[in-house]
């Protein structure tokens, strides 16, 4: 049951990253792909109606984590205290900028909110990337399973009393940001037409080209930081499966970009991210938060799980929630299907 | 250094209280307003009259702005269970996490999929589906409310749990947990209170336009729907839901009821204190005006019933802010009574057909809209202050629940951040809502093109 729940919460988090990651990417590229106010409205319209639905995946993931792995959530959230509040404030700013940016047809008003949207999206991508780096590298968990981490201690070392930011987590943050920007560009190429489409296609090609060597670098870095992960990864058939997903989707993505098959490229982009995260999730299992101070302090899924009755009860209602969610997904996919043109200077598109 | 300011529990409580009170200003309106939208969409479908669509369109814009601020200020609430209340999460996550997760799965996905369709999709969806979207959003917001009430009710009156070998709580029975008697009564009380807020806001807008002599058709609709629903909801919020809520507190948290009433000594023929200032040090109520026997009657059904006083309980189980608890409860009751009076007058004048010309009453209605917000807030303060010193009643104390690794410096930093950010959000919200009100309900698509280019 504990393994099943590890799978379910990983599924929810990965779904969140893939869905909202495109919105972060769109935000990062916002000021580059759209150069006139009308084009900016077009970009916002391409993600406008759905961002909050995507964000709900994070809330559902968080709620489920409280229910099934409460000790993980407690340790991680209290330990990352300040970083989490930065994430929260960026979420507030991003949500408000998307919702009120189009409310008033005034140049200054829209410029301001477009800027807020771009900056908050960039910060969110960097912060989530750094969080992912921390998950891989580990955090200074003490014997009680607690930690309280500075933003940075000694950026040159990745072991012992580490901070939130060091050379490893920063490079993962940059990697994640580039990756999400590429993902966003692929989405915009699929979803828009006109100049925004052409520029997105251009940026998408270059960003994905950069991802190749970048992926090799962060893999080598991870090998250096956590050699034990590779040993466990090689012996795990599921991580081989993840590797196959990565290869197939990378091929799909590249052929989609080459043939200008936007849907194919976008699917490849989605599954590439899914493949990477799935490989990561099965490789770290069963350790869910690694201790850089002493490996025996690490939190495993077994030590953070709530009581068996809580897990089995949650497993009873969760599938019904998933079925409903799939229905909503079909509804909104059909409703917001198709390309978004250059707007008529307002938000009446949906 | 033994002051309240060095106590981490104080700062964590203050931050949670501030963020949750601010957050709840928005959902209480959307939960109440959602059913007005359903009603007007239904009337439009039934009669085919355009004025109902116009009303729904106007209020959907107000709804949308409230929904946005409600969403963005709601996310920090869930995060704070982990960041600020880590030990509470470790202890009770297996139970309260269920409803937090269910809120996401069963309410938020539904609401966020449909709210865009409700606000912008009228043409594309057609009248029937647009009506269904309004129902979906209303249901979503109430389901969401139920899960939060169920979570809170577990903290007020824990049921359906088991204690695991490591001392933390697990879920024994989902149905017992969800059908907690506390949850059912508190849900009824809270939801009717949200309809009170919605009704007063709608009626207030009608009064405003009537006094300004603009949009007479729309203003008439708002006044009619607002005062009618307002009367029903104001009555229901007091009786039976508020009455039942107080009885329930008397049954399960007698020490809380004593503190709410500022009652230090127990006895028969207990009176309701209409006015008076609790003096905890001297253990008495200063300057009291009392209705004899009323409390005995309200809490236990007869004038002779014995009502407990605080002195019968050990002092360390008393709520830790008796003064604020007492004032919250009493002000809520006072306001609730005034709401009934206002709505009775308004309905009487409307029945006589002269509400539109009773200017003093329109002024009262127009100016009254902030008070249901205050009364709702005071109700929650009564519930939360009354639960102290417990976080989970009789099981787990508040001072054991906060995150031990987070320093006061961190908490105060984030509290300052929230204060600044929420201040700006408040200004933004008031400006945008004010703009919609100024443009009025008959200005089609005002917010999206046209006039503003002159700004």
What does this structure look like?
The complex is a heterodimer of chains A (350) and B (455). Chain A has one domain. Chain A contains 13 helices and two strands, in the order H-H-H-H-H-H-H-H-H-H-H-E-E-H-H. Chain A has helices at residues 2-33, 37-47, 51-68, 70-79, 81-100, 107-137, 167-191, 195-225, 227-234, 237-259, 262-284, 301-304, 308-335; strands at 287-289, 299-300. In chain A, strands 1-2 form a two-stranded antiparallel ribbon. Chain A is globular, with a radius of gyration of 20 Å. Chain A starts with a helix and ends in a 15-residue tail after the last helix. By secondary structure, chain B is mainly α. A two-stranded antiparallel ribbon of chain B has the order 1-2. Chain B has a two-stranded antiparallel sheet with strand order 3-4. Chain B has a two-stranded antiparallel ribbon with strand order 5-6. In chain B, helix 3 packs parallel to helix 8, helix 8 crosses helix 9 and helix 8 runs antiparallel to helix 11 (322-352). Chain B starts with 7 loop residues before the first helix and ends in a 16-residue tail after the last helix. Mean pLDDT of chain B is 91; it is low at 445-455. Classes of the chains: A mainly alpha (350), B mainly alpha (455). At the A-B interface, helix 3, helix 4, helix 5 and helix 13 of A face helix 3, helix 4, strand 2 and helix 14 of B.
- Give the termini distance of chain A in whole angstroms: 42 Å
Interface with most residues: A-B, 72 and 74 residues
Q: Helix- and strand-based class of chain B?
A: mainly alpha
The amount of helix of chain A comes to over 70%
SS field, number of helical segments of chain A: 13
What's the domain count of chain A?
1
Count the helices of chain B. How many?
14
> What quaternary form is this?
heterodimer
């Amino acid at each position: 049951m504990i393994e099943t729940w590890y799978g379910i919460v990983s599924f929810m988090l990965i779904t969140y990253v893939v869905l909202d990651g495109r919105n972060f990417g769109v935000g990062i590229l916002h000021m580059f792909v759209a150069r006139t106010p009308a084009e900016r409205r077009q970009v916002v319209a391409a993600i406008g109606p759905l961002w909050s639905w995507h964000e709900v995946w994070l809330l559902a993931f968080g709620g489920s984590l409280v229910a099934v792995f409460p000790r993980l959530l407690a340790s991680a959230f209290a330990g990352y205290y300040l970083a989490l509040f930065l994430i929260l404030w960026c979420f507030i700013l991003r949500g408000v900028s998307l919702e009120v940016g189009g409310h008033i047809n005034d140049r200054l008003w829209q410029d301001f909110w477009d800027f807020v949207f771009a900056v908050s999206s960039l910060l969110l991508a960097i912060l989530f990337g750094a969080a992912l780096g921390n998950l891989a590298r580990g955090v200074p968990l003490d014997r009680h399973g607690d930690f309280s981490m500075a933003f940075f201690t000694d950026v040159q070392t990745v072991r012992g009393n580490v901070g939130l930011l060091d050379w490893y987590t920063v490079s993962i943050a940059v990697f994640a940001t580039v990756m999400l920007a590429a993902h966003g560009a692929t989405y915009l190429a699929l979803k828009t037409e006109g100049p925004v489409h052409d520029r997105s296609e251009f940026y998408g090609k270059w960003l994905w080209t950069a991802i190749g060597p970048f992926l090799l670098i962060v893999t080598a870095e991870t090998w250096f930081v956590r050699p034990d992960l590779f040993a466990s990864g090689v012996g795990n058939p599921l991580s081989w499966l993840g590797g196959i997903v990565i290869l197939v989707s990378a091929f799909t993505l590249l052929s989609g970009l080459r043939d200008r098959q936007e849907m194919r490229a976008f699917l490849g982009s989605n599954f590439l991210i899914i493949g990477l995260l799935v490989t990561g999730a099965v490789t770290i299992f069963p350790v869910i938060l690694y201790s850089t101070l002493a490996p025996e302090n690490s939190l495993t899924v077994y030590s953070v799980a709530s009581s068996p009755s809580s897990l089995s009860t949650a497993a009873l209602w969760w599938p019904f929630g998933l079925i409903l969610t799939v229905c909503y997904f079909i509804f909104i996919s059909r409703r917001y299907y198709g390309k978004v043109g250059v707007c008529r200077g307002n938000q009446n598109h949906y | 250094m033994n002051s309240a300011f060095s106590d981490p529990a104080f700062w964590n409580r203050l931050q949670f209280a501030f963020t949750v009170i601010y957050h709840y200003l928005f959902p209480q309106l959307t939960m109440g307003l959602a059913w007005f939208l359903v009603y007007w969409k239904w009337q439009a479908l039934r009669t085919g009259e355009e004025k109902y669509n116009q009303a729904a369109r106007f209020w959907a814009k107000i709804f949308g702005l409230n929904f946005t601020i409600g969403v963005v200020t709601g996310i920090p609430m869930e995060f704070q269970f982990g960041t600020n209340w880590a030990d509470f999460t470790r202890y009770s996550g297996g139970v309260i996490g269920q409803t937090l997760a269910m809120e996401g799965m069963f309410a938020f996905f539904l609401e966020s999929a449909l709210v865009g369709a409700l606000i912008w999709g009228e043409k594309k969806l057609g009248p029937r589906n647009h009506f269904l979207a309004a129902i979906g959003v209303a249901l979503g917001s109430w389901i969401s409310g139920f899960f939060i009430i169920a979570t809170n009710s577990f903290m007020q009156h824990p049921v359906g749990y088991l204690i695991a070998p490591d001392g933390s709580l697990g879920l024994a029975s989902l149905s017992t947990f969800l059908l907690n008697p506390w949850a059912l009564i508190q849900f009824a009380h809270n939801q009717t209170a949200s309809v009170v807020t919605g009704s007063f806001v709608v009626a207030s807008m009608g009064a405003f336009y009537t006094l300004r002599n603009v949009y007479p058709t729309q203003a008439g609709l708002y006044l009619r729907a607002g005062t009618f629903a307002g009367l029903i909801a104001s009555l229901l919020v007091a009786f039976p839901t508020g009455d039942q809520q107080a009885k329930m507190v008397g049954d399960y948290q007698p020490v809380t009821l004593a503190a709410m009433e500022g009652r230090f000594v127990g006895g028969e023929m207990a009176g309701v204190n209409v006015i008076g200032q609790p003096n905890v040090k001297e253990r008495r109520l200063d300057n009291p005006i009392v209705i004899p026997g009323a409390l005995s009657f309200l809490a236990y059904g007869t004038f002779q019933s014995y009502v407990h006083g605080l002195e019968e309980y050990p002092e360390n189980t008393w709520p830790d802010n008796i003064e604020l608890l007492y004032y919250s409860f009493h002000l809520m009751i006072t306001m609730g009574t005034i709401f009934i009076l206002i709505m009775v007058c308004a309905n009487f004048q409307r029945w006589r057909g002269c509400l539109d010309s009773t200017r003093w009453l329109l002024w009262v209605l127009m100016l009254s809209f902030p008070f249901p917000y205050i009364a709702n807030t005071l109700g929650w303060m009564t519930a939360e202050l009354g639960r102290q010193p417990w976080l989970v009643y009789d099981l787990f104390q508040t001072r054991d629940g906060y995150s031990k690794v987070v320093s006061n410096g961190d908490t105060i930093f984030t509290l300052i951040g929230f204060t600044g950010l929420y201040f700006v959000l408040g200004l933004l919200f008031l400006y945008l809502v004010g703009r919609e009100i100024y443009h009025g309900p008959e200005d089609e698509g005002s917010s999206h093109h046209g006039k503003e280019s002159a700004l």
